[in-house]
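Deliverable D5.2: sample structural annotation.
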Amino acid sequence: RFECSFNGGAFAACSSPAGLSAPGEGLQTIAIVAIDLAGNRSAPVQAQWVTDFSAPALAFGQILPSAASYI
């Protein structure tokens, strides 16, 4: 079986694929441990990602004419 910890929270039973509620914006961390039938726990394995809900800012420099305008 597996237990997961999301953003430093308590470890709780989870399955694969792990279902996560919508996280807030910023750095997210999930840690997973495996537990065998005897109750031995593995070392935690972690993954991190950044959730960013901000729209990208676009800026255009000078737009050059297309090659077709030189024909």
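Annotation notes: The CA atoms of residues 9 and 66 lie 55 Å apart. DSSP finds no helices and four strands in the chain.
The annotation will be released with the project's public dataset once the embargo ends.
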